[in-house]
Amino acid sequence: MRFVLRRRKLGQLMVFSTVAATIANFVEKAVAETQVKKTTPMLATSTDSETVKVTLQVNGTPHNLQIEPRVTLLDALREYIGLIGTKKGCDHGQCGACTVLVDGQRINSCLTFAIMHTDAKITTIEGLKQGNNLHPMQAAFLSRDAFQCGYCTPGQICSAVGLVNEGHAKSDADIRELMSGNICRCGAYPNIVAAVRDVLEGKKDAAV
After folding, report:
1. pLDDT, tens digit (0-9, with 9 covering 90-100), for 57-72
2. Can you list the positions of beta strands (E) in the chain?
3. In the chain, what are the domain boundaries?
4. Is 128 exposed, middle or buried, given 0-12, 13-18 or 19+ CB atoms closer than 10 A?
5. Confidence at residue 170, expressed as pLDDT on a 0 to 100 scale
6. Which of 60-69, 110-119, 162-171, 194-203 has the lowest mean pLDDT?
7. Coil, helix or strand for 144?
8. Which residues pair with residue 54 across a beta bridge?
9. Reported confidence tier of residue 39, pLDDT bands at 50, 70, 90
10. pTM for this structure?
11. Whose CA is closest to 159, among 75, 102, 81?
């Protein structure tokens, strides 16, 4: 009986010691973090001195921006200019939702800085429409029902227009390969290919 009681007391002492050590370590860590916060200066916030003036020619209109040099073209379009048709998907250049046209060439706007395109002609999905008429590629996507949720559609259409500009697609296989950088998670690929084929085969003025 005494042996059992001694074992129980020993166990209680061990538990108490462990708890006490844990509390002591916690307190010591908290004190150390407090000292670090007191002695470490706060990071400087963004000021006008850290930004630059940038003028972007978007859809035929100049936009004067005061932005940090690290602002991507995608963020400049969406957050500073308000053209939210260009979508932010993966933000790593893997899905193609942010595709726009720069001097007629399709690019992933999330992978490039806005400041790099001050002398370029930038076209977004909002700028494809010609007056009151849809761009032929937009009309083809509607005609072929080449979308479901529609999130990837602006990038798909801009990429398709760029594909037409490049002049390399001669077959459905070419279209699929050259559009492979634009992901449609709904799986509307057959209709997308059909829409692009329609423009390549029959419609005019499909280039920007």
Report:
1. 999 999 999 999 999 9
2. 52-58, 61-67, 99-102, 105-108, 121-123
3. 1-42, 48-201
4. buried
5. 94
6. 194-203
7. coil
8. 65
9. very low
10. 0.75
11. 102
